[in-house]
Design brief:
The complex is a heterodimer of chains A (about 290) and B (about 190). Chain A is of the alpha/beta class. Chain A contains 13 helices and 8 strands. Chain A has a single domain, classed as TIM Barrel (Alpha-Beta Barrel), CATH 3.20.20.70. Chain A is about 45% helix and about 10% strand. The chains are: A alpha/beta (about 290), B alpha/beta (about 190).
């Protein structure tokens, strides 16, 4: 494993126990930083707006990303379309801190994800299950997040993906050596990474929750289910009081195991994002099914 | 001996694992209550802005700052070093503000500037130690009897002042336990005084 990959995995380690917030301009970025975000995700339209507006969704304007980089001192991430390695090259030229190869944008390639091992900047990728996570890691992702269902404010898919990942990790851990190759074949995952999970009982990289987290309780729920930190996309800046909600979610992630603190921070946050129930979304409009 | 590890955000679990490996009891610190009964505290890597804000929000800043001023041994790695510094380059406020150092945040730039190197630090160990820098800070200048323990390319990356140890890099991300042992020794010496 290369030195660079180790350094990139280690940046993700530093983000743990933290909240990564979607922001659309420098002002929101500063609000997020002041609220205690451990990083921001710069994008032109947050997932809820992408859903509402439709059309093709692409990587953000470099000008907007540079303005956000100039506005804050915490790491700045940005999204590229699945398989769009040139958008990734552009973000690398901007010295972005993390690239999210994201199903939130319209996929650029229906077959291949980006060969992330060719890049010096780190990548985070979404996954619905263990096999998908291990495929992305083998391609060079140094951080994983659940896909959830972005832009909905409905946490059900993030929960489903996290639980599935945990169950599959427990299953792989229970296997004997001679069962591992068959397991690797069945889940379409690289053998050496299946073996790693068998030996260590966990993913080889940090795993965050994403996709539908809208309240401090949602964030704490994902932490109690075993994720290392959370992404909040539309949940903050689509709510009635973004600053207060952002601060509350940060505190909830730190004290995810303390219901008294969670009760305090959940109080009087104003309106949450309106949200859409995932079950009301047609199968072909589900972002989590983009990528494989 | 119990060593607290500040667990508001960041890579606190790695420090807990290191302590366990050298047979020391580690304790996660998330509130003022958790600060009771510890013999030393490690401030881990992470984002100093996030940790600094949570220290204020959970009313821990003054309490922890006073404890360190009164002699509680403290070790800050990366963001932890920024929390301990009296002066942060380009900012007019410090966090705990207990050590006479002036630090520069993100001194090596963005993630592409992160690197690792090896160095012998005589105060810590005779063997070379791997130094991992992740969007790391360094120390611009020191005051009032701060000992410089290590420089890399002319920049100060490890220092000590009485009961306070700081490193720009992350010994907790490597297999070498020399820094953790050194901190334990600092705590033992502190007790015998």
């Amino acid at each position: 494993m290369s030195k660079r990959y180790e350094l990139n995995k280690n940046l993700a380690e530093m983000l743990k126990g933290g909240v990564i917030m979607d922001v659309m301009n420098p002002e929101q970025a500063r609000i997020a930083e002041a609220a205690g975000a451990c990083a921001v995700m710069a994008l032109e339209r947050i997932p809820a707006d992408i859903r509402a507006k439709g059309g093709v969704s692409r990587a953000s304007d470099p000008k907007m990303i540079k303005e956000i980089q100039a506005a804050v001192s915490i790491p700045v991430m940005a999204k590229v379309r699945i398989g769009h390695f040139v958008e990734a090259q552009i973000l690398e030229a901007l010295e972005i801190d993390y690239i999210d190869e994201s199903e939130v944008l319209t996929p650029a390639d229906n077959v291949y994800h980006i060969d992330k091992s060719k890049f010096k900047v780190p990548f985070v990728c979404g996954a619905k299950n263990l096999g998908e996570a291990l495929r992305r890691i083998r391609e060079g992702a140094s951080m994983i997040r659940t896909k959830g269902e972005p832009g909905t404010g409905d946490v059900v898919e993030a929960v489903t993906h996290m639980r599935r990942m945990n169950e599959e990790i427990r299953y792989i851990k229970s296997l004997t050596d001679e069962q591992l190759m068959t397991a690797a074949k069945d889940m379409g995952a690289p053998y050496e990474l299946v073996k790693y999970v068998n030996e260590h009982g966990k993913l080889p990289v940090v795993n965050f929750a994403a996709g539908g987290i809208a309240t401090p309780a949602d964030a704490a729920l994902m932490m109690q289910l075993g994720c290392d930190g959370v992404f909040v996309g539309s949940g903050i800046f689509k709510s009635g009081n973004p600053k207060k909600r952002a601060e509350a979610i940060v505190k909830a992630v730190t004290h995810y195991n303390d219901p008294k603190v969670l009760a305090e921070v959940s109080e009087d946050l104003g309106e949450a994002m309106v949200g859409i129930s995932v079950s009301d979304i047609n199968a072909n409009n589900r972002m989590a099914d983009r990528g494989w | 001996m119990i060593i607290g590890v500040l667990a508001l955000q960041g890579a606190f679990r790695e420090h807990m694992k290191c302590l366990k490996k050298i047979g020391i009891h580690g304790k996660l610190v998330k509130s003022n209550k958790d600060l009771e009964g510890i013999d030393g505290i490690i401030l881990p890597g992470g984002e100093s802005t996030a940790m600094g804000k949570l220290l204020v929000d959970f009313n821990m800043k003054e309490n922890l700052s006073n404890k360190i001023k009164n002699g509680l041994p403290a070790w800050g790695t990366c963001a932890g070093m920024i929390l301990l510094a009296k002066k942060i380059d380009g900012e007019n406020k410090a966090h705990l503000g207990v050590m006479d150092i002036d630090v520069k945040r993100n001194a090596y730039g963005r993630q592409l500037g992160s690197f690792s190197t090896e160095k012998i630090i005589p105060e810590i160990s005779d063997e070379p130690i791997e130094l991992v820098f992740i969007r790391a800070p360094y120390i611009n200048s020191v005051n009032n009897g701060v000992d410089i323990l290590c420089e890399v390319d002319g920049n100060i990356v490890a220092a000590k002042q009485r009961n306070i140890l700081v490193t720009s890099f992350h010994p907790e991300l490597t297999e070498n336990r020399a820094f953790h042992r050194y901190f334990v020794k600092m705590i033992k010496n502190n007790k015998s005084v």
